[in-house]
Specification:
By secondary structure, the protein is an alpha/beta fold. It contains eleven helices and 14 strands.
Length: 358
């Protein structure tokens, strides 16, 4: 049987149904096919639990023998939290493996394919690879750079403002856009805002599409200790507080990190704290000062902007700062994607190539 795109499409759909509970592992989907029909499928749903290939091959031995396995990432060949998937594939006597991409993890990096080929399994790779890489952009940066993947998200009016002159920002974007944001929250390990946003908006910073799904850790940047009470919604749950103050509020479920004086989220201490806390991906949701600092420091990997068909005529700009004097100095967003969401337009683009350290 030859490769059929519909089965890889299904494997990618399965992989995308996972949430941030998988991280720092990759998002992987797998489909077992026999005689043109799917006989088993699965996806990696939580770090430390069974991999997608194991779930897809949890079928009768007679169905598994001679079947084709479609998988979005090279099967692992090393012992980690679970045994090597290559051993199971060989044991089940799978005929062929069709993979979207090679695993960038140096512990695998083609070794899984070599092991399968040496056992007589047909291996072909490179199907819908661009989609597979996009799906695992967080994993790729984590494994190659040992740094968190940082996403900047904001909503603005057609004339480029994120709030009115009085600071009112509810709601710029439409309900459909806010649903997309909640889906994004389910797929990051943490959400970060500055003290100004907490004081002004009193946000909850929760992902509300699936109450039983992954809930991100809350990260609060309050360098000056402006927050003087624990009675804000954001302090419900678990989180991290970044400050310059030697003494700060003792809030249950939150860990305080006192960072060096003059710290402006641009030093290595910031990403080191995130990594230590297991925050392998972080969504930045404001405010303007926090956004400006992170953009200036070059720490943002991806930008997601919702542009609403509204005109304010003045107000608060997204990133603040003095800006650059010439258009040729503007930061380009790579691989931009435009998409209509309700009455809004969503723009998504990359600041960096995760395969290249920056």
């Amino acid at each position: 049987m030859s490769y059929e795109p519909r089965f890889m499409k299904r494997a990618l759909e399965l992989a995308a149904s996972a949430d941030a509970a998988v991280q720092p592992n990759p998002y992987v989907g797998a489909v077992a096919v026999r005689d043109g029909h799917i006989v088993g499928e699965g996806f990696h749903s939580r770090f430390g639990e069974a991999h997608a290939e194991v779930k897809a091959l949890d079928i009768d031995e007679r169905l598994a023998e001679g079947c084709d396995l479609y998988v979005t990432l090279e099967p692992c060949s090393h012992h980690g939290k679970t045994p090597p998937c290559t051993d199971l594939i060989i044991k089940k006597k799978v005929r062929a493996v069709y993979a979207a991409m090679e695993d960038p993890n140096p512990l695998v990096a083609g070794e899984g394919f070599r092991k399968l080929k040496n056992a007589g399994v047909e291996v072909r790779v490179g199907f819908q690879e661009k989609k597979a890489r996009e799906l695992n952009r967080i994993f790729i940066k984590n494994i190659l750079q040992k740094r968190p993947y940082i996403i900047l998200k904001y909503a603005m009016t057609a004339d480029g403002y994120i709030a009115t002159c009085t600071g009112d920002s509810k709601w710029i974007s439409c309900e459909e856009s806010r649903e997309v944001v909640h889906r994004l929250r389910h797929n990051v390990k943490g959400i970060m805002v500055g003290a100004g946003t907490v004081l002004r908006d009193n946000p909850r910073l929760t992902a509300r599409l699936d109450p039983r799904g992954w809930q991100p850790v809350k990260v609060i940047y309050d360098p000056l200790g402006e927050i003087s009470s624990p009675e804000f919604h954001v302090f419900e749950g678990k989180g991290v507080i970044l400050t310059q103050q030697e003494k700060y509020l003792d809030i249950k479920g939150f860990r305080n990190y006192t960072l060096p004086g003059g710290f402006a989220l641009s030093g290595r201490e910031f990403t080191e704290v995130l990594w230590k806390e297991g925050l392998y991906s972080l969504l930045i949701e404001g405010g303007a000062h926090t956004i400006h600092i992170l953009l200036e420091a070059g720490l943002v990997d991806e930008v997601v902007v919702f542009i609403a068909p509204r005109i304010l005529g003045g107000g608060l700009s997204p990133a603040g700062g003095r800006g650059v004097p010439k258009m040729e100095m503007a930061r380009p967003l790579k691989d931009p994607v435009w998409r209509k969401v309700g009455e809004d337009i969503m723009l998504k683009g990359k600041c960096h190539d995760v395969y290249r350290p920056h």
